[in-house]
Structures are given as structure tokens and as C-alpha cells.
Design goal:
Elements: E1 2-5, E2 8-17, E3 33-42, E4 45-55, H1 56-70, E5 76-78, E6 86-93, E7 97-106, E8 109-117, H2 119-136
Antiparallel strand pairs: 1-2, 2-3, 3-4, 5-6, 6-7, 7-8
Helix pairs in contact: 1-2
């Protein structure tokens, strides 16, 4: 998942689950967390944060809502995440312009990028989210 505007870019990369499949089965552990890399670029400056920031179920919710936008069922979606340092929004303005915003905020400050997208680029973005879900899907135990 990546958005870019001018010299600024932010990417959320998923590198798998925090825990291996089957770990903690039947125990009160939350094994839904994904190992996440947030890559922030501002011109020549860049920063990477690697933590378990995103849950698979939250990513599914993002995808489901992006599909609703793609299919014309809704025009706006604000992501809601357990880790409130993450920011995500997708919206259609004036029935044609699509904007996707992604951000991250921590003690070093807020980093937010808002990219205007064509419908083709938005479809590609939604497909990238789907690809992450497919690559990291595992059945509930």
C-alpha cells in the first residue's frame, strides 16, 4: 500500500504475522497482528518504522470499504485502527476525484501524504491491498 504526492511518499508494507500459524491456539492471545513496516520518504529524507501496527482484520476492513467505494456504494472511508498512530482515508470528491491519504504519527511527529488518483490508479491501489490479504491469509484455528 503506497501513496505519493510530489516528493513525499508513505508505504505500509506487511511482512507476515507476529506469531506463526497455530501459535497460541485456544489461548487468550491475540494472534491477528501483522509485522508492519511504515516507510516514509520526504525528498532525500526517509524513515522506517517496523512494529506490529496493523491487524489482519483491520486490513480486511480497509479492503471491504475500498471495494464499496470502487463499486459506487459509498464515497468516503476513514480507517479505524487499534494502533491510533496509523491514519487512512479514501474519498471521492465531486463524484470524480479520488483521494487516498495515509499517515503515521509518533514522537517524531506526524507524516501524512494525500494522493489524488485516477480510477485506474485507485483500482491498482485496491488490488495491492487485496494482494496483501491473499499473501497473508490463514484460516482461523
Amino acid at each position: 500500500m503506497r501513496v505519493k504526492e510530489g516528493s513525499q511518499e508513505i508505504q505500509w508494507r506487511v511482512n507476515g504475522y507476529e506469531y506463526p500459524p497455530g501459535w497460541g491456539a485456544g489461548m487468550p492471545y491475540d494472534t491477528d497482528w501483522l509485522e508492519t513496516e511504515i516507510i516514509m520518504v520526504d525528498g532525500a529524507d526517509s524513515r522506517v518504522v517496523e512494529e506490529n501496527l496493523l491487524r489482519f482484520s483491520e486490513l480486511e476492513n480497509v479492503y471491504d470499504n475500498l471495494m464499496r467505494i470502487l463499486e459506487g456504494e459509498q464515497s468516503d472511508f476513514n480507517g479505524s485502527f487499534t494502533d491510533q498512530r496509523l491514519y487512512f482515508r479514501a474519498s471521492i470528491v465531486e463524484d470524480r476525484d479520488i483521494f487516498v491519504s495515509m499517515g503515521f504519527e509518533d514522537e517524531e511527529g506526524e507524516f501524512l501524504v494525500k494522493e489524488p488518483m485516477t480510477s485506474e490508479a485507485f483500482y491498482g491501489f485496491v488490488k495491492s491491498v487485496e494482494d496483501i490479504l491473499v499473501a497473508n491469509y490463514r484460516p482461523k484455528l
